Description:
The protein is α+β, with helices and mostly antiparallel strands. It has a domain at 11-66 and 130-199 and 298-374: 3-Layer(bba) Sandwich (FAD/NAD(P)-binding domain). The protein has helices at 22-31, 55-60, 75-83, 87-90, 129-142, 189-193, 255-263, 266-277, 325-345, 353-381, 386-401, 403-413; strands at residues 11-18, 44-47, 70-74, 95-97, 99-104, 110-114, 124-128, 147-150, 155-160, 165-169, 174-182, 198-214, 221-227, 230-236, 246-253, 284-287, 291-300, 304-305, 308-310, 316-317. Helix 11 packs across helix 12. The longest helix has 29 residues, at 353-381. The chain is elongated.
Amino acid sequence: MQASENISTKQHFDVIISGGGLSGSLMALSLLSLKTSDNKPLSIAIIEAADATKTGQLIKNTTSVFDDRVLALSHASAQYLKKIDAWPLIQEHAQAITDIHISDRGYYGKARITADKHSVSAVGYVVEMSKLGLALHQVLEKNSQNLTWFTPDSIEQIQWKSESVDITLTSQIQLSASLLIGCDGANSICRQSANIACDRTDYNQSALITNVSTKQPHHGVAFERFTENGPIAMLPMVNVANENSRCSLVWTLTPEQADEMKLLTDEEFKITLERSFGSWLGSIEKVGKRHIYPLSLVQAQAQIHHRMVLIGNASHTIHPIAGQGFNLGLRDVQILAKTLEQALSQQEDIGSFNRLTEYALSRKKDHRHIIKLTDSLVTLFSNDLFPLVVGRNIGLKVLNYVPVIKNTFVNKTMGY
């Protein structure tokens, strides 16, 4: 990777990626092997606001780009990371999920998903964002011949022209590209500059997120526990020194409950969590710093603009209840890379509206299905109305004992 010098002449690239976080790095990795019609690699620029101007500093400062939360990688996402040669650097930091236990506290409904019964060694993996981000940057560093970083820098102005997108950075560097890819998160400057509106649904919920250690080892089991105080996800993490069993807790609560939980002492919080989660992993031994995140569904009304595509959180931010947000964004990356590869093989303009429309249409069904799934789960499992309680417990029993339904559900959560 190289950081560009501030020069006055306009620099042209085939592709400019706004955002060097997870989505932006994955997008760049997915495009590095593509060739133009004259058999040259695509020229790619990444614009990243993190305060790092050299490769070494960028790697060391990865935690300023990626927050400390964990991600649940689906089986399909892990397979794609292998394809782009990132998995060898991630694997030692990724905890395999071999089993999933789903239960409704105080009721009979339960479901169990076991990896080996679905012919895989793991249905998914849990990895810290910082570790994943560092690995992606390290792979980019090894394949940096046609990649230029503009960092620390950000987009100040975008002008859409018939044959290019022209960009002025805050440093006043002038860039242009055949295609701009917005990987710049929920507050995407690309989306805002194109005046693309968003549909927003406020769930009136917050996610309390922290890391905990438990008395009993997790053995690779992920728990989804529905309680009177909201769904609890307990995700197994790779253990570190002096930690018997480390897990990532995601507890969905009302905003008022979340604020109250954050104000509890560590000991008070341990007791409260144990009461709600139960004794599946024994006592809660240690609690990390608690973070609160408001939850909402945000969907851009358009996925594409003239010579521009929105990817990941710039396009959609969904509820974490099924752990599908990052995986949905990774499939955006995967399908866009495939679309651009097809355009190049047919010597077409990678920024053509027809090709970008083809991409948007191909992603519509997946977006709709995942959003419907998470939205339904929020309604069903964050509500104590008696008919819904009965319905979800019957549903869990059906999920557990009807193979066709179970296989369909498992395949969907695995990303297939």
